[in-house]
Amino acid sequence: MENFKLCLFSSTPEVVDLGFIVKVLAGTPQELVQRTVDWGYDGLEFLPDPDNIPDPIPFKHVVDDAGIGLYVVNSGRMAVQDMALIHENEAIRRRSVDAFKRMIDFAAHFKARTALGIARGKGIPNATKQENDSVADGVFRELTKHAESTGVVIMLEAAEPDITSYLNTNAQIMEWVDRINSPNLSVHLDSHQLNGAEKSIEEGIKVTRGQATHIHLYDPSRWPPGVIDAEDQLDWPQIIKILRATHMPETGSVVLAPEGDPGPVAIKSRDFLRSLLQAKDGSDEIQ
Q: Cα separation of 166 and 118, whole Å?
């Protein structure tokens, strides 16, 4: 699977103080790129500060000079910085939509895709599905129109019910992909969501009909794949096999170890995943 790009979750230094849901690589563009190269990954999934998005031009120079890619711009920091795209307050909603558009513009410089997951918020309190859908329709159409003007693809990501009450399954995500019906709106998979919110991981993947272009890769404990005891891991060989049988996403991202020295763990996870990806059927036993 030489076309599959393996990425590291990354963000700017202040992310460490935000209590983000997973641990990500933090640093300046130069530091992020150097760690990516040192640890042998293909590129970055970058979570910008929605209130202070970096200048893309010098950032791109650093990425290009290192021979890696910035493949995904993740909007997840909006969820911990008092923003939500689906929100009952129109001012918060407007601020959030404008921030997401800036992320689309940033992504365009890298020919990257933009992830739309927990940035949508927890859902409007006490609202019906129809009321949430009405707000979402306006937001998703506005953002998709902006994405179409830049060539960026937005990827919708489902999340577990303990994170949001709105759009918990990939079947629900596909309803929106079909409803908006744009080449600039696709699907984003997440292994934690697949394990925790779908009837089965296989069904959660298959329902996306091969339209998923990115996947988050980590175990239920939010450790990267292949580094904790086998009985606590997801069945990664089977997951890769299912992805291969349906449609392998273009990219996948790995989180950092939640404790300890992240470098050796990131390298071990990289080797584990690459061994799976290079196996003939995705199910060979990893030593």
A: 10
How many domains does one find in the chain?
1
Tens digit of pLDDT for each residue in 244-265?
999 999 999 999 999 999 999 9
pTM over 0.90: yes
What is the chain's mean pLDDT, rounded?
A: 95
Residue 156 belongs to a domain? yes
DSSP the chain: -TTPEEEEEEE-GGGGGTT-SS--EES-HHHHHHHHHHTT-SEEEEE--TTSPPPHHHHHHHHHHHT-EEEEEE-GGGGGTT--SS-S-HHHHHHHHHHHHHHHHHHHHHT-EEEESGGG-S--TT--HHHHHHHHHHHHHHHHHHHHHHTPPEEEE---TTT-SS--SHHHHHHHHHHH--TTEEEEEEHHHHHHHSS-HHHHHHTTTT-EEEEEE--TTSPPTTSS-GGGS--HHHHHHHHHHH---SEEEEPPPSSS-HHHHHHHHHHHHHHHHHSSSS-PPP-
The rounded distance, in Å, linking the Cα atoms of 103 and 143 is 11
- Could you give the CA distance from residue 39 to residue 85 in angstroms, rounded to a whole number? 35
What is the domain extent for residue 38?
A: 5-278
Q: Identify whether 287 is part of a domain.
A: no
pLDDT 10s digits, 41-56: 999 999 999 999 999 9
Residue 283 in any domain: the answer is no
Q: Are 56 and 106 in contact (CB under 8 A)?
A: yes
Q: How many CB atoms are closer than 10 A to CB 161?
A: 12
Residue 63 lies in a domain: yes
CATH number of the structural domain spanning residue 111: 3.20.20.150
Q: For the chain, how many residues are written? A: 287
